[in-house]
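Self-study notes.
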Amino acid sequence: MTIETITLGCRLNMAESATMKRRLEAAGETRDTVIINSCAVTGEAVRQTRQSIRRARRDHPDARLVVTGCAAQVEPETFRAMPEVDALIGNAEKLDVAQIANASKALPGDVMTAPAPAVAAGFGNKVRSFVAVQTGCDHRCTFCTIPYGRGNSQSLSLDEVRRAVAAELDRGAKEIVITGVDITSYDRDGMRLGEMLQRLLADEPRLERLRLSSLDSIEMDGALFELLSGDQRLLPHFHLSLQAGDDMILKRMKRRHSRAQAVAIVEKLKAARPDVTIGADIIAGFPTETEAMFENSLALIEDCDIIAAHVFPYSPREKTPAARMPQLDRRLIKERAARLRARAAAHRQAWLEAQVGTLQPCLIENGHKGHTDGFAPIAVEGAPRGAYGQARITHASETGLTGIFE
């Protein structure tokens, strides 16, 4: 019996895949099973899900093939029609072993009315582990299908989060990444994200390295800034859901921040901790985007000092308001995405090269490779998995840093 998970998309999916695999193995599942945990954030992500399903069936002709995740939730008919698929399971049921075992090609359950799921936690290499504290989203950005795949925002209790973190530390995790769909909307019994993290760190002294996944900058609370400036265990890399650098495009996206607010948040983060580094999601070619509007997004790379840009060419998604707006030519969208990536790559390379000769704290995750606290990829020759220390940076390339432990 083998259980394999194939994960597309976000860190929440990664945590859920690890949880599904662990629970099925503990329950004594006797069938060879492949679970494809899908993504629906773009049309390309859905295409890759279909491709992964076909490849999985070729590689595992006799296994039971189960499809879950946002693509399966948002457009289940697409996957019900695929002969390679044996069963579908919705996002609300995916962590329930009995539901997985009994899943068929029936339509997934309604995520809008489902109760909050159990905490998902885990990751393949066990050095860094993802722990989900929240799921769903109450916002309705005009380009996004995720609320239809995940439902409305629901936050898990501190006790549940604490137990999940403790279990991951017991399994050997050296770093915990807090994840979810919209973690800055975390609100359980009046407790926001910053306070929850403060209490988590106070209650679990073994937790020495804490990272956060993608954040909606406008929702970051005061306690989170206090934690950043006062506790070195909160690592200084922040990935922000910025999406654009032009106020009109932000308004048409139904984002809740302005360009000036995005720049101010980055300045506030760097004031709280000078070694903060910034990542960001940026969409190229949103409907109605003019060249001048696009130039504002290009300039955001430097204005927000973005050293890790995730650039998405806009693709219309069914049911979203943006799909009904005047669309740009696909060639223009691809060209703008390429320009954004080139600008971001140049800015990132300058950041990497500036670290040559410096000492950088880093954690080794696989082989002799890992990440610095600022989330630069690093290779430290001879360092074992799980090693943490100060590395002297000897070289920088487009793939990351090289260093030696001192």
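Second protein, same conventions, sequence then structure:
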Amino acid sequence: MNRRTLLALLPAVAVAPALLSLAPPIEEAFAQGVDPNAILNDPEVPVSGNPKGDLTIVAFLDYNCPFCKKAEPDLTRLVKTDGRIRLVHKDWPILGDASVYGAQLALAAKYQGRYDEVHRALMAIPGRKIPKERMLEAVAASGVDLARLEEDRKAHQAEIAALLQRNLDQADALGLQGTPVFLIGQLKVAAALEYDGFRQAVAQARAKGRP
């Protein structure tokens, strides 16, 4: 198993160091040689918010990342209050085997139209190093059909693994070092944000235009 497989990278990736409200470290998202369309429009990746919005946010997240969890409510609030944001969920499980399991559960839920519910349930678990059993408990409490979820997780194992690998390859091509990372239009924010920080980055991205 080489470096570009999910499990080979698990111990090596760090978590973003801070939760930021204003003046986030913003960079250009798409360097030369990176295909924005492949990242923004993968047909297998879950999308929420306004599918016809004028701005896309791509969120690279891990269900064992505490900074991802801190940013999640403000990101959800932003998408709801703005009304013009298309949110692309890039499950990027880099913090352990349980993170991979959580991503598998969320992506399997997509086949019964319940990705958002499972995603929110997993993000709502406090702390880090969440075991698989605790993740499954949270998913069960979300109201998802657990029997079908497990069937879909097994039946679509190859598709889910391929999607997670694409997400990993894209993160690698973008030079990402840890979670969370948000691609906001043409901008990259490699840090957790609070609501005002998200609003500021969105305003800058809209001023810059589409990628």
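Instructor comment on the second fold: The first strand starts at residue 14 and ends at 15.
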